[in-house]
Specification:
Radius of gyration of chain A: 20 Å
Chains: A mainly alpha, B mainly alpha, C mainly alpha
Shape of chain B: rod-shaped
Oligomer: heterotrimer
Number of helices of chain B: 2
Strand content of chain A: under 5%
């Protein structure tokens, strides 16, 4: 068991092991997503306040959860790479960034589309949406910084610092935006956190959350494998992999 | 829920379905990107291998 | 040769930066002029109705201060990076975070403090009540050091890059949001006659956090940028 984890730290073994896991995780992801969509779109009852528009929630909320989860993973992996100089931690960190940014973008767009029938405008400076917007900028900053530094190791370490500074700031930013929102928005009730949610609505929500997590792992492994090949392009095992004569 | 109700989503069809469509696009883009990156990398590395073989 | 004590090293570096800055006195005015200019543009853009200006004034002045701070950040490490002194700081016997703190203090004295001094003038331009202007100065006093400190992290990360200035804004502005929110809100509340104790405590908390953690983060970032 320990040997398994130890092997996982080596780029070469990670490449191979991840390659074997991806198909299975992908199947699990598709199955859970189909089940979640079936439950959410067909089985869950119509909300008496919002009609059927609330079904956007089954995309919006899991996407928002993922946007935060991935940022924490990115910062954590960055920290591990920084402290223990683990190559694979650096790879996981930078491979996570575009995926996290995508989920943040998805949360924003679906939040906006959901907001139109709810609040009447395409954009509202709701506390959660505003915080998500700033989170998107934090992600883009990490991606921009990584792209601007030539050496991959230096780039990984610099973005690790940035991600850590960001992760410390996210609760502060979220709190400040919420505070600002209660002062300026007044009685805009967010339907996003109704305390008592029907079980038939909760189940698809949780299933979609699991599906999105599986999706993240699958895509992360795919990206990480490519990143590993990039970094290790001059090693023997990569040369053999690409096609020796 | 009847099929008709499914498509109309209580009048909110445009909002609900566009959200789900955008979600699909985002998820697909995330799957396609590493695949294309990988192919590009392999072509690059294969080209390099050919160059090195010629040198020998 | 004896290594100077930490406080002496801090003082020397601070004095050096201030002296260097004062040799190029005209450059000191640039962020200040930017601050005044940007604030003056808003009435031209949104109309000069006094009620409107009074309502959005605090926010405008604070956004202008943010942008002015951002603009001036590049100077924190730029000249030292270019002439090699930054590498000397890295290998010196003194802890890098303290040296960074000295540079940030110098930066604030040169760019932040002038904003504080000019702010009342801008308050008058936008017809803010006296209570608002006093609060404005208080929030600037607490907030501009935070801007310099957080900004230093961003500059440390981008100092080695060719076009780091472009990325710097993207990195630093999201981190500035809490300061902006608490400060602008404080000024508004003061204008409405409400208590600003909560806002000021939050700003002080941000300042305390920034002073303790930013130099460390900036030092780590410098070591990476210069590696």
């Amino acid at each position: 068991m320990w040997h398994f984890f130890h092997q996982l730290g080596s780029p070469k073994h990670f490449y191979r092991i991840a390659g074997r896991w991806i198909p299975w995780l992908a199947v699990a992801c598709v199955v859970s997503m189909l089940y979640g969509l079936y439950q959410g779109l067909l089985v869950a009852p119509t909300d008496y306040q919002q009609g059927d528009s609330y079904r956007i929630m089954f995309i919006h909320v899991p996407a928002a959860w993922m946007s935060l989860f991935i940022y924490v993973v990115m910062a954590g992996a960055g920290a591990i790479g920084l402290i223990w100089h683990m190559k694979l931690a650096e790879v996981v960190a930078i491979s996570s960034a575009p995926i996290g940014a995508s989920f943040t973008f998805l949360a924003l767009i679906t939040g906006s589309i959901w907001g139109k029938p709810m609040w009447g405008t395409w954009w509202v400076w709701d506390a959660r949406l505003t915080s998500e917007l700033i989170l998107l900028f934090l992600y883009l900053g990490v991606m921009a910084l990584y792209g601007a530094v030539e050496d991959k190791r230096t780039a990984a370490r610099a973005t690790a610092i940035l991600a850590l500074v960001g992760v410390v700031n996210i609760p502060i930013i979220h709190y400040s935006v919420e505070w600002w929102n209660t002062l300026h928005q007044g009685p805009t009730v967010t339907k996003f956190d109704t305390p008592s949610i029907d079980l038939r609505m909760l189940i698809p929500l949780l299933v979609m959350a699991v599906a999105f997590k599986l999706f993240y792992v699958v895509v992360l492994l795919m990206r990480a494998r490519v990143e590993v090949l990039e970094r290790e392009r001059n090693t023997q095992w990569v040369r053999e992999l690409v096609g020796s004569p | 829920m009847s099929l008709n109700e499914f498509f109309h989503m209580g009048g909110y069809a445009a909002y609900v379905w566009s959200s789900y469509a955008i979600a699909l696009v985002v998820l697909l883009a995330n799957v396609v990107a590493p695949v294309r990156q990988r192919r590009k990398l392999f072509t690059q590395l294969a080209r390099r291998a050919r160059r090195e073989r010629k040198k020998l | 040769m004896n290594t100077p004590s930490l406080s002496r090293a801090f003082g020397l570096l601070l004095w050096r930066d201030l002296t260097l800055a004062f040799r190029r006195r005209t450059e000191l005015f640039n962020p200040l002029l930017f601050f005044v200019l940007v604030t003056s543009l808003f009435p031209l853009g949104i109309g000069a109705e006094p009620a409107l200006l009074r309502a959005v004034g605090p926010g405008i002045i604070w956004v202008a201060a943010l942008l002015a701070a951002l603009l001036s950040l590049d100077s924190v490490f730029r000249s030292d990076f270019e002439d090699g002194s930054l590498e000397q700081f890295l290998i010196s016997a003194q802890p890098l975070s303290i040296l960074v703190l000295a540079k940030v203090v110098a930066h604030w004295l040169i760019t932040g403090l002038p904003l504080l001094i000019v702010a009342p003038l801008l308050g008058l331009l936008l017809d803010l009540p006296t209570a608002s202007i006093v609060t404005l100065m208080l929030t600037l006093a607490l907030g501009t050091p935070v801007l310099s400190l957080i900004g230093a992290i961003g500059v440390a990360l981008t100092v080695g890059l060719r076009r780091g200035g472009v990325i710097l804004s993207l990195l630093v502005l999201p981190l500035y949001v809490p300061v902006l929110i608490f400060a602008a809100n404080a000024v508004e509340s003061a204008g409405a006659g409400l208590s600003i104790a909560a806002h000021l405590s939050l700003l002080s908390a941000l300042l305390a956090l920034a002073v303790s953690l930013s130099p460390l983060a900036a030092a780590a970032a410098l070591k990476i940028s210069l590696s």
